Structure prediction request, 313 residues.
Amino acid sequence: MESATIRRSPPLPALIRVALVGLLVVLAAVAWAITEDRMDGMDAGPGTDPGTLGFFVGVWVVMMAAMMFPSIAPMVVTHARVLAASRPRGRLVAVAPSVFFVGGYLLAWAAAGVAAYAVYQLGEAATADLFSWDRGGQYLAGGIVLVAAAYQLTPLKDRCLQRCRSPFSVVTADWRYGNAGSLQMGIVHGGWCIGCCWAMMAALFALGVMSLVWMAFIAALIAAEKLLPWRAVVRRAVAVILLVVGLALAFAPASVPGLILPGSPEAMRAMESMEGSMGGSMDKGSMDKGSMGHGSMRGDAMGNQSMRADPMR
Prediction:
């Protein structure tokens, strides 16, 4: 589709725009509620074990809906706007292509979640207890957040962020018709979003991937840099925030608000809460020390999870 044709597309009626944005916000709120229910009591600090692949991917996709749906609202509205302009006059806007677009977006993030899970498991297997919290885990966690801060200032980050903030540029370059085309567009847009946000998601793993506090923190940073004006200023401000958090995590973790320190009474209470809520058994003696991978979650085929603590890994 020609760029000029796309840009001449008439705006969607206000009622449809409000309905689309409102629906995304409602779905995000529902996803937050589901995430809170699934992750209740699971935050045992940096490096909390993500559990089995099936359990993690399920939680991850719902997390992405909660964190990202408000930020992709401009893209969804633009997609619907161009779609409406391409239909014969008088015909209603089809809902299915927008659903497929959002589905493709989540599919891209699901693939990213599988990759993140693999990296986590491979890293844990390769390092064994080298980065246990009392040996060097806090420096590893802080270093990951500092990498996220540095990535904010790279040309690749700027290019990906520009695409995320410019819906018309995505539509111009990648427009496809039909449900299958919308699914493909959603995957492509999700790819740009992953390129923009992967480092902050890595920081979420370092801070506690099962923490609602840090999930909200990262979601707020992502929304700020995608939705607020002055792209360069916001991008650098986010870099400074991550720099401060990374340094504090590495050298003064006890000073970081909302952080659960591995091996702390709060972490042990979280493990006990997980044991009580999931009916699992936990090795009380293994709670004496914390690590970057101290919680081990396993889910059975029926969706019931049992948890054992393994802080010495």
About this structure: The first helix runs from residue 3 to 7. Strands lie at 295-299, 305-309.
